[in-house]
Amino acid sequence: PRVEFCGYSIPHPSENRVNLRVQTT
């Protein structure tokens, strides 16, 4: 899961909120 969360952190820098959600999950 960390790879995916990190994955969209690069292409979707504006979706940090989503990344945080995935990281917490």
From TrEMBL:
SUPFAM superfamilies: RBP11-like subunits of RNA polymerase. GO terms for molecular function: protein dimerization activity. GO terms for cellular component: DNA-directed RNA polymerase complex. Residues 1-25 form the DNA-directed RNA polymerase RBP11-like dimerisation domain. The keyword GTP-binding does not apply. Gene3D superfamilies: RNA polymerase, RBP11-like subunit. InterPro entries: RBP11-like (IPR036603), RBP11-like_dimer (IPR009025). The keyword Transcription applies. Keywords: DNA-directed RNA polymerase, Transcription. GO terms for biological process: DNA-templated transcription. Pfam families: RNA_pol_L_2 (PF13656). It comes from the Eukaryota. This is DNA-directed RNA polymerase RBP11-like dimerisation domain-containing protein.
